[in-house]
Specification:
Structural class of chain A: alpha+beta
Shape of chain B: globular
Structural class of chain B: alpha/beta
Number of helices of chain A: 25
Strand order of the largest sheet of chain A: 12-13-19-15-17-16
Distance between the termini of chain A: 39 Å
Helix content of chain B: 25-40%
Largest interface: A-B, 99 and 91 residues
Number of strands of chain A: 19
Strand order of the largest sheet of chain B: 5-8-1-9-10-4-11
Oligomer: heterodimer
Chain lengths: 668, 435
């Protein structure tokens, strides 16, 4: 949890540092990286980019709703109503911030009970209603539905708990009632609410298993649980193949959920998801109705959809396009000609935007309205969003002890003239020189996103400048020139990669994964590269396949009795099979990890690693203290005692240093 | 390994899972001194963006003070005898919006502080709230349009762990009053099933915890902690409902729309009072917006955001007037909260609920124009069961507000508390505040 506070502490530190200067001009030259001044690593340092840490990731609120929709087949807005999560660097899905408070746990419970009650049981259970064999149907349901809810097979220990709950609740509520309680419980399960990205130790790193890979891929590309095809690739193990992983990433990117997820990213990246509620003065801006706000949101979504999925898919088109999508009402609001052809079902169509300086999403009403004051524009806010979200250079707060009154409205002056003090007062100029001169370029766009030729009769000077960047410095006149400068900047493409990685990985990429972040950012060096290529690179990077972490302390099962425990009566050892089932391959390291234990059984996960110099078809003899009830990712010779496990077709061959994992459950 | 040891392990795990890690963390529970009067409940009220001292300060001092005409606190005139205005406390070593928000209720505490970085409401809830249906209730008014962050949250369960308020009156109502079961036996059966679900989830958390590292295990500990709160909420607790336990009517409105701010504030206040009157909790907070609030006070005639108004320089008469008007509106809301508590008789005791409550109005900055946390304004209200003598204006100079936080603990009967938050800011209570 310590990591969560780093962004805010960084801000405080910067603030205090400024304060210590004591009246001298602060020089908050923007930090090189977003995460506290970590510069770009050198190529030598990044010869073999290492993946990040092992995490549990609670479903973000939007992910909860999408997952419920896909799992139960009914819409949910419960997640949208849950207590807002802590936002880290603009995104609400940082792994460290997604915890469960008392309030959220209660909200999750209420949601789970309502969803359990609303679920279409007949559609979800694997038998006809009323069930011919209620107990068998309930058990099958727990396993089949549980595998989708937990996004991996349910262990028999887990299944037993839910069957027990079914028995308890169906006693007085009948079969359907029991099923509803199972759904209600599974929706509160940590295995539903948390996505594990933990992996299994392979001697060097923790390898994410096929189920973990499937979930990570699915949530990072589509914001929801894996679909049937992806589940099948996890079950078969095919997803362990990098080529299959990439193919799936590209397939998922273009699904409806993948398209919606791009909108979710853009909304958080540029903070335009605040548009619906950003307070505005109704006296100054009576035209900005809730309906217009909703249409502005639609305008940006339709544009992003077009650029990413139908257009060139490039940053350049996103930031510099000369067209947009509006309906008649929004066209009237902007004072442009309404669309006339190829209107969609909501009346939106593509129009050429002739306003001076129009430059793609930079000049969308959504962005301009969100980043402005309640009754005027704001060069500060607009400069800040470019600096922080497009250049990834965070800014410190104003220093204490000086009056920081925003310039009052004055009809005799232009906004630029009112903000002139920021460029002349020593205490202000240090910070504001990196914001205001960018924001001045937006002065032809009013506080609610409309073009204005002049400002109350005064001539607008929209010349601007970027200073103190790494690779984007220079002057420009108006937003179109600014857009072209940003679109051509390697700093901007690198920043976009960082922001998208933040969204997909739920960590602070520049701080935690500088080399992998650089690696995926390289995709965008080709000016023709599509944003899709970036999303795929992020979703298939080494961080999507492996994790680093300290080696497990011991190979012993975690529930081994303490060594000083007095000996207890051992049950009689089962007689070994008449013929030894086989012998373990030479050079094969076997790590047995206990997954679950209950009174009459247990499940283990086994990782085998080829420590030799040549490829081998592995055999692992493992002592199973009971009778095998199921096993996966392997073939088993033997039912108990020493069992020889061999790989399934897809994981039988192990390259040198390669590893794979399999598992089994047994009864005792 | 034997089946016996495996069974033993599972049982041991269950016990560990049930034990709450948090309350122990706050130190041994000390029996509250019976001889000394104390408040039965604590209410924290927050409004953002500091103040303009010259427009906030009463005139006079001690018991003889008045609220000047047109000043920010003037709408409290009817409650002059119910409040203590506390002036001149600093958040030591802290400045700016974010720092002020973080230090306001925590006293700058960290994980190693005796209070473990908890905010005053959460600390008190941890000490006196265990038997309540809700150890504490956090209500908000438009706190979350920017999501949770140090800027938008004021309560901390412990260092680094923000406690989110509920901004939706309909959800608050549903949590508090919406789950009335039919017959007692049906209610019992429902409760049993809900507890079975919680038990199942706890068992799964126990298994999962063994698979994850220590750091990720903390998340699961919090989840377990949260389930304990859920279970308390289900069971009803031991609070005594007052005769006046009446759920308010909650209008169906978009709680996030700027112009609904007054309506949401009103109904959240009513819900907070109802929760107290119905014995659902002893510790409640109402957070109105957050620092750097962009709320446009259209209902007081202003067209600019509250944060912009708060930075109006003394030379900007119109801006200052608009800010004062917004601040007077907050004072009126605080006054309404006191109206409601004063109108309800205390169950099983003499006087009103206000007499047995400590209400704290906190802000995160002193002079907002300067981004400083010096002379941060506080207003206390209620008699705290007789521990606090209201009707006074106390002026201090440069004392740490952590002393006030210690005094709040004492007023709640937690007299063993000697420091709150960062120890380096000093120890002991605020001299002259409590009897």
């Amino acid at each position: 949890m310590k990591r969560l506070l780093i962004p805010s502490l960084a801000l405080l530190t910067a603030c205090q540092a400024v304060g210590q200067i004591g009246g001298a001009t602060p020089d908050p030259t923007p930090e090189a990286g977003r995460d506290g001044g970590v510069g770009a690593p050198s190529p030598e340092e990044c010869a073999a980019p290492a993946p990040g840490r092992r995490v549990l990731r609670r479903l973000a609120r939007a992910e909860y709703d999408h997952t419920v929709r896909d799992l139960l087949g009914i819409p949910s807005d419960h997640g949208a109503r849950f207590a807002s999560d802590t936002v880290v660097e603009g995104f609400d899905n940082h792994a460290d911030a997604l915890t469960i408070s008392g309030l959220l746990a209660d909200q999750l419970r209420l949601a789970a009970e309502e969803l359990g009650a609303r679920a279409d049981v007949a559609r979800l259970v694997p038998c006809a209603l009323p069930p011919p064999d209620a107990a068998a149907c309930a058990r099958d349901f727990v396993e089949a539905f549980g595998a989708r809810a937990f996004r991996r097979p349910v262990t028999s220990a887990e299944a037993a708990r839910y069957v027990q709950l079914f028995e308890l609740t169906s006693a007085d509520e009948g079969f359907e009632g029991g099923v509803r309680w199972v759904i209600t419980a599974m929706l509160q399960s940590p295995h539903f609410l948390h996505r594990p990205e933990l992996g299994t130790w392979n001697g060097a790193r923790y390898a994410l298993d096929a189920w973990e890979r499937a979930s990570l891929l699915s949530y990072s590309i589509t914001g929801t649980m894996p679909d049937a095809a992806l589940f099948e690739l996890a079950r078969s193990g095919a997803l362990m193949d990098a080529a299959v992983l990439e193919r799936e990433a590209r397939r998922l990117f273009r699904t409806p959920s993948g398209r919606a997820n791009v909108q979710r990213f853009v909304g958080q990246w540029l903070s335009i998801d605040r548009l619906a509620e950003v307070p505005k003065d109704a006296v100054t801006y009576p035209e900005l109705t809730p309906q217009i706000r909703a249409k502005m949101k639609r305008e940006t979504e339709r544009f992003v959809e077009h650029v990413v999925f139908e257009g060139t898919g490039t940053i350049t088109e996103l930031l510099t396009a000369d067209y947009g999508f509006v309906d008649a009402a929004l066209a009237g609001y902007y004072g442009i000609s309404p669309p006339t052809e190829d209107l969609d079902s909501e009346g939106f169509g593509r129009v050429f935007r002739g306003e001076l300086g129009y430059s793609g999403i930079l000049t969308h009403g959504s962005l301009l309205t969100t980043h402005a004051r309640a009754s005027s524009t704001s060069p500060v806010h607009r400069g800040k969003v470019v600096r922080e979200r497009l250049l990834c250079q965070p800014l410190p707060p104003p220093p204490p002890g000086i009056v920081v009154q925003p310039p009052p409205l004055d009809p005799t002056l232009t906004t630029r003239e009112r903000y002139a003090a920021h460029g002349s007062v020593a205490a202000c100029v240090g910070c504001h020189r990196v914001m205001d001169p960018i924001g001045f370029a937006f002065e032809h766009w009013d506080g609610i996103g409309r073009f204005r030729a002049d400002e109350g009769g005064h001539v607008i000077d929209a010349r601007g400048e970027i200073v103190s960047s790494r690779a984007t410095d220079g002057t420009f006149d108006g937003t179109a020139e600014l857009g072209r400068r940003l679109a051509a900047s390697p700093e901007v493409s690198s920043c976009l990669a960082e922001e998208w990685a933040r969204f997909a990985w739920g960590v602070s990429p520049r701080q935690e994964l500088p080399c992998v972040t650089d690696e995926v950012a390289r995709v965008l060096r080709d000016p023709a590269a599509r944003l899709e290529d970036l999303a795929v690179a992020i979703a298939t990077s080494v961080h999507a396949r492996e994790r680093t972490g300290p080696a497990p302390v011991t190979d012993a099962p975690p529930d081994a009795p303490p060594v000083d425990e007095p000996p207890v009566d051992e049950p009689p050892v089962e007689p070994p099979p008449s013929e030894p089932p086989g012998t373990t391959s030479p050079d094969l390291q076997i790590d047995v990890h206990n997954d679950a234990t209950w009174e009459t059984g247990f499940c283990d996960q086994v990782t085998v690693t080829n420590l030799g110099a040549t490829e081998l078809e592995w055999v692992a003899v493992v002592h199973v203290a009971g009778t095998l009830t199921q096993h996966w990712n392997s073939e088993a010779d033997g039912e108990g005692g020493d069992v020889a496990f061999r790989g399934a077709a897809w994981n039988r061959a192990l390259a040198p240093a390669g590893s794979t994992s399999f598992g089994y459950c047994a009864s005792r | 390994m034997t089946s016996i040891s495996r069974r033993g392990f599972v049982r041991g795990l269950g016990a560990a899972a049930v034990a709450a890690p948090f309350f122990e963390l706050l130190g041994p529970r000390v029996a509250r001194a019976q001889a000394v009067a104390s408040a039965k409940r604590l209410v924290v009220f927050f409004s953002p963006n500091g103040t303009i001292h010259s427009k906030w300060r009463p005139s006079g001092t001690g018991a003889s003070f008045t609220f000047p005409a047109g000043s920010i606190l003037e709408p409290l005139a009817a409650h002059r005898a119910d409040v203590v205005v506390v002036d001149g406390l600093d958040f030591i070593g802290t400045s700016n919006h974010e720092g002020g928000m973080a230090a306001m209720l925590t006293g700058g505490g960290s994980a190693s502080s005796p209070t473990a970085g908890a905010s005053i409401d959460q600390y008190v809830a941890g000490r006196i709230g265990a038997e309540s249906r809700f150890a504490s209730l956090e209500l908000g008014v438009q706190t979350s349009a920017w999501g949770g962050s140090v800027q938008t949250r004021m309560s901390y369960r412990r260092a680094g762990e923000l406690v989110p308020p509920d901004d939706r009156p309909d959800e608050v109502y549903r949590r508090l009053f919406g789950e009335v079961a039919g017959t007692p036996s049906a209610a019992d059966a429902l409760l049993r099933k809900r507890k079975s679900v919680l038990d199942l989830v706890r068992a799964e958390l126990g298994v999962l915890k063994r698979a994850v590292g220590a750091e990720e295990g903390q998340k699961l500990d919090r989840h377990l902690d949260a389930l304990r709160a859920v279970e308390n909420g289900l069971s009803g607790g031991t609070g005594v409902p007052a005769a006046a336990c009446t759920p308010p009517v909650v209008p169906r409105i978009d709680a996030g729309a700027n112009d609904h701010f007054p309506d949401v504030t009103r109904v959240q206040t009513d819900l907070l009072v109802a929760a107290l009157a119905c014995g659902a909790t002893k510790v409640a907070s109402l957070q109105c917006s957050h620092t750097v609030s962009p709320t446009v006070f259209s209902w007081t005639g202003s067209g600019d955001g509250h944060h912009s108004l708060s930075h109006s320089d003394d030379g900007n008469a119109a801006g200052v007037a608009a800010f004062v008007a917004a601040e007077r509106w907050f004072t009126a809301q605080f006054s309404y909260l006191l109206d409601r508590l004063a109108a309800l008789p205390e169950p099983g005791a003499e006087g009103s609920m206000l007499d047995h409550t400590l209400v704290v109005w906190a802000k995160e900055l002193g002079d907002a124009r300067l981004h400083e946390c010096r002379a941060v304004p506080f207003v206390l209200a209620g008699r705290a069961g007789g521990r606090l003598t209201p009707g006074r204006y106390l002026r201090y100079s440069g004392l740490s507000h952590t002393k006030l936080l210690v005094s709040i603990c004492h007023a709640m009967g937690l007299d063993d508390v000697t420091s709150f938050g960062d120890l380096s800011h000093g120890t002991g209570a605020l001299e002259g505040l409590l009897g």
